From TrEMBL:
Organism annotation: Brachybacterium phenoliresistens
Gene3D superfamilies named among the record's database cross-references: 1.10.1740.10, Glycosidases, Golgi alpha-mannosidase II, Oligo-1,6-glucosidase, Domain 2
Molecular function via GO: amylosucrase activity
Domain Glycosyl hydrolase family 13 catalytic: from-to ranges: 104-528
Coiled-coil stretches: none
PANTHER family per record: ALPHA AMYLASE CATALYTIC REGION, ALPHA-AMYLASE FAMILY MEMBER
GO annotation terms (biological process): carbohydrate metabolic process
Protein name from the UniProt record: Amylosucrase
Highest taxon in the source lineage: Bacteria
Lineage: Bacteria, Bacillati, Actinomycetota, Actinomycetes, Micrococcales
Length: 634
């Protein structure tokens, strides 16, 4: 249209870019060339938006493209075969057979090699996705459970070697299980080579972090940032030995990377592609909300954070196309959803559903969860939620205050109630959780614990086992990829031993990260035991789900029941739907026939595998769940 591009922003000349890259890498093969042409405009556009103010932005882009081309040249043949297979079946991760598990390598199996002996069990459970918690070289002592990485190319020597990881990835793939590892890309540990060079005054690496001579800028930023680990340090900065200040959102030994510097992007793209080459199939993108900072803002979920993720994603599409990104954004639901799209993170934790499941169990009131299922469950095509009951982290009460207000609930007071309830301070509470990062200045806190302990089993509450099953039944029936914290499926309890382990004592999240409960696993078939009963009931849910295509995908239709304590929704299928009804109350509920009168009277309850006549209504026991296969009334 006759618009002359600005000199610094010339239009993309793909041939010229390709020629420059090939001059350094040699010719492209046909597959790579096709993907290069397809995704170059996207990556170019993103780089221009992120780094276009810099004179060297196109050189920086060239560097990333060279890296991508070299990485593809070295990509192992089995992974290229996987790339081809996934290209034929791009929605593979939305099938009803998807099931995730998560564990710490040392706590579950000792070492990476030790993981092999559990693959049979993972198959028995039906896992297709295994998230191994951070397993990279990290500082001795407290290293935030491995989330302070000293080298992305070295496995923590106590766990094994990078070769062991690649071997395990291959063995898992053989067993139909995709390996998921963390990409901890917001920060490195203070022992990372880049960090050491930065403190030593090497200007190239000083620019990898956000370092300030005095308090002027830190003070200015901290006017609007949130304290994430207030038990560790106030504000967002810590002081270096030479008195300078460095950005450190989490622990003082985790230093935020400076993504305004394109060399950081390139370096981290290199680490990402290195992990891709080991056979990792999903990267859990850690702490996505924090990767870009701007003065005067909360420095969370800024537009550039999305552009950076999209740029990393575009690099993958070119160089390791079968990989997926999973977003870890434990923030306001309006922000969580922003990270999820085929061009950014294809899958995401669903922290709202997780937190509101616990909220409903505590309050015996399903309204907030039903409201979230109604208005915050939808996703773009080609993406999926990872629905979980709890993770290795604390439960943050991330519901929107606006949503709560509509139901007459005051968000602040409600969070306080939930924290008190789950740490067992409320009279009559069934829960035994631990408080995490209580901040007396803001009243904020979060809660940690295993599912069994939070749900009442540890306390001996009569509803404990039912609640464990109910919480999993929600995660297993709302679509996407359900994710089990391994050990919870045999009702493992809190581990208070962390208080005596110096590296863990200050971080109560360790209460919820026990070692593999070998005795519980040994009795998992024995229904005279708690572990056996919980396990057999969960296995039943897993078996039903595997054969229920209605439970795949993300379509969900709310189903209103005139009882506050009932969670209700339908998962539509081609001929029949599954109506999920779960009762968080302490009394049985009888759903009357009128409420069910839009449905054909002949239904089947899939968990117990019994015929139900809906003209008689539906009885849901206290803390009970029904998965009713129903048809609309003919
Ligand atoms: C994520 C991890 C958490 C860690 C933090 C900092 O939130 O899940 O365990 O402390 O990132 O890396």
């Amino acid at each position: 249209m006759g618009v002359t591009p600005h000199a610094a922003h010339p239009a993309l000349d793909p041939h010229a870019v390709r020629a420059r890259v090939q001059a350094r890498t040699g010719p492209f093969d046909a597959d790579f060339a096709a993907r290069f042409s397809e995704h170059l405009p996207t990556l170019h556009g993103l780089f221009q938006r992120i780094y276009g103010e810099r004179e060297d932005w196109q050189d920086a882009l060239d560097e990333v493209l060279v890296l991508a081309a070299e990485s593809w040249q070295q990509r192992p043949a089995p992974l290229k075969a996987l790339d081809a297979a996934r290209a034929e079946d791009p929605d593979w991760f939305t099938s009803a057979r998807m099931l995730g598990g998560v564990c710490y390598v040392d706590r579950y199996a000792g070492t990476l090699r030790g993981m092999h002996e559990h693959i049979g069990y993972f198959q028995e459970l039906g896992l297709t996705y295994l998230h191994l918690m951070p397993l990279f070289a990290a500082p001795e002592g407290n290293n935030d459970g491995g989330y302070a990485v000293s080298s992305y190319r070295q496995v923590d020597p106590r766990l094994g070697t990078m070769e062991d990881l690649a071997e395990l990835a291959a063995a898992l793939r053989e067993a139909g299980i995709s390996l998921v590892v963390d990409f901890i890309f917001n920060h490195t540990s203070d022992e990372h080579e880049w960090a050491r060079k930065a403190v030593a005054g090497d200007p190239e690496h000083e620019d990898f972090y956000l370092i300030f001579e005095d308090r002027a800028m830190p003070d200015a930023y901290e006017r609007t940032t949130r304290e994430i680990f207030p038990d560790d340090h106030r504000g967002s900065f810590v002081q270096l030995e030479d008195d300078r200040w460095i950005w450190s959102t989490f622990y003082h030994f985790q230093w935020d990377l400076n993504y305004a510097n394109p060399a950081v992007f390139r370096a981290m793209a290199g680490e990402m592609l290195f992990l891709a080459a080991q056979g990792v199939e999903v990267l859990r993108m850690d702490a996505v909300a924090f990767i870009w900072k701007r003065l005067g803002t909360a420095c969370e979920s800024l537009p550039e954070a999305h552009l950076l993720l999209q740029a990393f994603n575009a690099v993958l599409r070119i160089a390791a196309p079968s990989l997926l990104f999973k977003s870890e954004a434990i923030v306001h639901p309006d922000e969580v959803i922003e990270y999820i799209s085929p061009g950014e993170c294809q899958i995401s934790y669903n922290p709202l559903q997780m937190a509101l499941t616990w909220e409903a169990l505590a309050t015996r009131d399903a309204r907030l969860l039903n409201q979230a299922l109604e208005r915050r469950h939808a996703l773009p095509a080609g993406t999926a939620w990872v629905n979980y009951v709890r993770s290795h982290d604390d439960i943050g009460w991330t519901f929107a205050d606006e949503d709560a207000a509509e139901l007459g609930i005051d968000g602040y007071a409600h969070r306080r109630f939930l924290n008190d309830f789950y740490v067992g301070r409320t009279v009559g509470s069934f829960a035994r959780g631990a408080a995490f990062q209580e901040n007396p200045r803001t009243g904020d806190a979060r809660v940690a614990g295993t599912t069994a302990s939070l749900a009442g089993i540890e306390k001996g509450d009569a509803g404990g086992e039912d609640r464990v099953v109910l919480a999993h039944a929600i995660a297993l029936s709302t679509g996407g990829i359900p994710l089990i914290y391994l050990g919870d499926e045999v009702a493992q309890m809190n581990d208070y031993g962390y208080r005596n382990r110096p590296a863990e004592a200050e971080d109560s999240r360790w209460v919820g990260r026990p070692h593999r409960p070998a005795e519980a696993y040994a009795v998992r078939e024995d229904e005279r035991t708690v572990a056996g009963r919980v396990h057999q009931r969960l296995r039943r849910l897993l078996a039903v789900r595997r054969d229920a295509p209605q439970l795949a995908g993300n379509d969900l239709v709310p189903f209103h029941v005139p009882h506050r304590c009932v969670i209700g929704f339908q998962r539509p299928g081609e001929v029949t739907s599954i109506l999920v009804l779960a009762n968080v109350g302490d009394e049985g509920v009888h759903v009357d026939p009128v409420t069910l009168s839009g449905l054909d009277p002949q239904a089947r309850e899939l968990i117990a595998d019994v015929e139900v006549d809906l003209r008689e209504g539906a009885a849901i026991p206290a803390h009970g769940v029904l998965w009713l296969e129903v048809r609309p009334r003919g």
